Structures are given as C-alpha cells and as structure tokens.
Description:
two-stranded antiparallel ribbon; 243 residues; 7 strands; mainly alpha; 3-stranded antiparallel β-sheet
Amino acid sequence: MPELNAFAERMRRNPLSNNAQLLWYKLMDTANRLHWPETFQLDNGRLKSLLNVGSTHTVLSARQELVDDGLLEFIAGAKGKPSVYKMLSVAALEEPAEQPEEESREAPDSFLWDVKDDITTYFGYTEALGQELQQIALTLWEEFFPRQQPNQNDVRQVFHRIRVQEKHEDGSWTMSFPQEKKQILAHAFDIAREQGKLNWGYVNGIYQVWSRNGYKTLNEIEESEYRREDRKNGHWGGDHEKA
C-alpha cells in the first residue's frame, strides 16, 4: 500500500516517537475498517485503548506529533462529544512535486527535461535575465545556505519556480521573475528549514501540496497556514473547544 510504504520511508528519515508511529498505524487501521471515510470520530478513551496506555497525556502527545508532522487533522471534541479525525496522505508529502507546466514552449521529453533541461532555450530568456536569476539564487543561498553556493541544478530549480512567460500579439515572448514568486519560494524554503528538511525534495513536496489545494498567491498560502494553526490549537469553524 503506497501510504504504508511512504510512512515507513518518512519514519526512516525523520522518526516520530514510538507512540506516535503506533497511533498512526492504529488510526489507519480504524479508517480502513470504516471503509475510508473522509473523517471519523474517536474519544480519548478509545485512543488510550488503541495505544494500550492509561495516560491521556501520552495519547494527546502522540496525536500532536502526527498533527505537527502534517499527517493528521482533527476537530477537538468537547465533553461527551468525541474528536473528529482526518488522515492526511503521507504519499502526497513524500512524492516529488509535479513539474511546472510547459504551456509556453514545446513539451519536452520528460526524462530529458529532468536531467538536461537548458533554461536558455525558454522563450523570452535573455542574458540579462540569466544574470538576474543567478543573483536571485545567490541571495536565496545567502539566507538559507550561508556557506554554500547554488549549483547548476539549484539555479534551474529556482528558475522553474519563479519564471513567468508571456506571449504577445506579434508573436514575441517576454519572461520575468515576479516578486511574489520569489517570496513564495523563500517561504517554502523557510518552512523546510523549520522542519529540518531543507532540500529540493521537501521544497517540491510543499509546492505539490499548495498546487493540489489550489493556492497560487502568498496570501492564500498564509491564510491556509493560519487555519491549520487554529486547528492545531483545537479551533475549528469558530468553536474553541478542548479535547
């Protein structure tokens, strides 16, 4: 099963506590037995039974680890009302991001695009833009990798995340690197750094999640993070209830 394999791989790289890992498996088993509903309900007593522990603190700590790692969402319950759980796809977090769409140039062979992509062949590319791109990459590296220099692949990755191309009526093309695109990329790097996973695989995974959820602007991304933080704090739809 892709989810089990993805979770095992994630735990090999960045393991959670034994209790958190066991809880994830138990919650997945629960969702499976319920035929994979979008959400399901469990009270704290049931959680303790799943982990075979008597401490509420133990299960809540394990649950919070899963939430913090982006593997679980829950609506905090109230007295007499169980919490609502939603399992999030680990496979989606672990997959490489989809490559940027190539609407403004002929679709290249996917393998060659991955390993030999020549950014200077893109319509609208100029030598001045190439110099600007190098400076953007250097600025990014000064912030996040202060003792390193971006290599050719790094520059190419930056290029595909920040470029915008426009075709004009006369058939000519222009290319630019909008400020918001650069801010979004820096934000993705910041998230990856906070998670201790500052690499292109993780950054591209962040972009994939944003793309899947339809987030295209920095404002949309930040609003989604505010909502997620509210859910972590037990706030959902304006109800501030404790588990």
